[in-house]
Amino acid sequence: MQSTVFDAHCDTIFELVEQKKDLYTNDLQLDMKRMEEYAGYIQVFAAFVDQKNIRTSPIHHCLQLVECYHRQITKNKEKIAHCTTIEEIKKTLQQGKAASILSIEGAEVFEGDLFALWMFYRLGVRLVTLTWNYANELADGILEPRGGGLTGFGAACVKEMNHLGIAVDVSHLSEKGFWDVERICEQPFIASHSNAKVLCSHPRNLNDEQIKAIIHHGGCIGINFYPEFLTDKPDCTIADIFQHIAYIFTLGGGENIGFGSDFDGVEALPDGFNGIQNMKDILTGLQQLGYTEREIENISHKNFLRTLAHIWKN
Asked: How many angstroms separate the CA atoms of 257 and 235, rounded?
């Protein structure tokens, strides 16, 4: 089946910097050449900051990734374009190009000051994953033992992101932080790369009440392809991806589900699933499972675009 694909999260830019590779073609889990196999492709590229392992300050490290992102987009401008509005995405796809969106994963890059949020907005960031697994100035991550919620600065950032039109992403956030976001966020919020905890007990996943809250607020959940987030069983296949999609459908999330592959941020994928080239297998599989064309288009790209259109105010 041919359809446009929206992927809400990959860590490819981090790997391009670390391994000195090129975005157009490489041996990673994602590149632009393989995007050309689809009717259209929209990719969110995360500037990922792991504060425990970086060799410089969080903001400096993030700026290196953002510079790499823009350099690669400019280098390949005949085939891909950076987008900050839904209209830009539509225009880019009509031109036969891939559309790219810049995000930040780990808001320790703001270093406790809103000026950094404003700066990154001007550099084109339109989605922010508030924490990675651990605590920063905004909140605790899901693996932080104390499990704290949003700080005062975190609440201020969420409100300013709502004002600017930056998507608030709760993947990796502590459960208390999640409910703080749910309480104060004035726009839909997303979980760019998280799964259903009832199907896989990993703490990174969302419980039913969290999923229902995202649905209630008009947000979107991107299914993560990492086996440890898909199943508690020793073996993982593409069928486990379908199970998470089907389960969120049962909670009323048919218009709130999409893809958040985590390509190049995970060391393993389901058996027989090697990267972006296998996204078409998900689309074909959904069709074989009896999902309608409208449902598949919603899952593949329209749900996330609808949510972002609301957040970005266009």
From this structure: 24
